[in-house]
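In the laboratory, one determines a bound structure by crystallizing the protein with its ligand and collecting diffraction data. In a computational setting the workflow is compressed into a single prediction: the sequence and the ligand go in, and a structural description comes out. We illustrate the idea with fe (ii) ion.
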Amino acid sequence: MTKQIPSSSASNGLSRRGIPLLRPTRRTLLTGTTAAVSMALISRYGRASQSGTPFTLGVASGAPTSDGVVLWTRLAPEPLAPDGSGGITEAALVTWEIAADEAMRQVVQRGTVEADRRLAHSVHVEVAGLQPNRPYWYRFIALGAESPIGRTRTAPAATDNVDHLRFAFASCSHYELGYFSAYRHMAADDPDLVLFLGDYIYEYTVSQEYADRTVRKHDGPTAVDLVGYRNRYALHRTDPDLQTLHAAAPCLVTWDDHEVENDYANEWSQVVATTPEAFLRRRAAAYQAYYEHMPLRARSLPHGSTLRLHDRIRFGNLVTFSVLDGRQYRSQQPCARPDTRRGYVAPDSCTERVDENRTLLGFEQERWLFDGFKTADTAWNVLAQNQLIAQLRQKGADGVVGHWTEGWDGYAAGRRRMLEAIDQTRLTNPVFIGGDIHSFWATDLKADLGDPTSKTIATEFVGTSITSDGPPYQRFMEMLPENPHVRFFDSRQRGYVRVDLTRRRMETSFLVISDRRDPKATVSTMKRFVVENGKPGGVAD
Ligand SMILES: [Fe+2]
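The predicted complex, in structure-token form:
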């Protein structure tokens, strides 16, 4: 448990220029070839840490509001210690500082928190009392060492006129399948905000079965307990490109399945023999490790196997982000087969798929979301979640034509309720963003999903994976004529999505890296779309 201790020397004003700071005995310096590549390309705020420091996992910030932000780090002098301790067992005091300038001379607040083994020596500082809509810089000092400096940003005040916001979103970063060059290029784009939309880690290990596809091995077995999940997050956070990104901008986060187990739904494992009781024990470990490694507020502290993740964040009068949890509360997947609960393409005879009593978000989260629609007053409304929203009539690998059971197509009534609520509340400029499917999509979400001529209610953009394999390109292209609401699809490259948002329009760029096997991969634009204010549906630019 991290406890915030007010510091007698903390300052709350911007005027504390030049106050004496704790002097570090050891400065973190950038080392290593990959890190050098990162540095050559982007700002100084992302730095891999040298060995011996407790700050091997970098720093991060998140959940920005108009007066605050969450600052995160975790002490881990041996980040992959086999016992999951990070190489530290005693409680330690961690000093944090947040400054108005990048040289950290104008420290505006400082405090000390205690980090201990109960939350793996992670630190989540909820800073309040900051100025809206401006950058801040922060660092931590502990065990005689100083962390890298991170840059963050507060949101504009609720009524502020905001001209422009740049955000980027990403999903599906499988460590073994490639380098995280996409993360490095995201940081170089200098976004105001980054959204991680799921599969931030993968619980399983590819190299055990597919040695030929492994780009970089790790020693971790499939994560099933707290030690396993902690070390899988720690592994990812040792990546210099991911550290660079977290240190460059605040983030909002949601999860998909691989933060726990492939294709899980609520309390149900994909493995039929696993009881809900046993699976919830595993989920509790996974959720705890997630909290420990993400810049989440204290209200997201896990209680047993539950963690409150869904959230609503606004940026002035420009945009509200509704961050949704698509895994924790969902109904069991429809028409499960007797031998496995994995998703599959179910034929039209599966009527459970459209059962009104089933939900992907859970009925409580649906209510929270729809209530938010009623009071929304920003120019744009972005719904950030984990999966493709659009319906997709498709042919499975076995030739069966139908719908995928473990995405929104498996919860059609919940999707219809959500789109109806958007329509009935006349939610302004709704745009869904998502991940999971390892491919780029631009779709029109129609009032009547079965009628391509019905009005478009919302726009959807889905980003490809950071490294994970894409689905078969040809097979999916062949199904597109049956899915005329899909404006664009491509699964052949890895990358991310960048969005430039103004009151007038939303410009969405699909960015791709040259090669996931190349730690120095370059980036290029595959496609750009524009959504004009008041005209749902992305138009190719
Ligand atoms: Fe994925």
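The longest strand covers residues 523-532. Keep in mind that any predicted model is a hypothesis to be tested, not a measurement.
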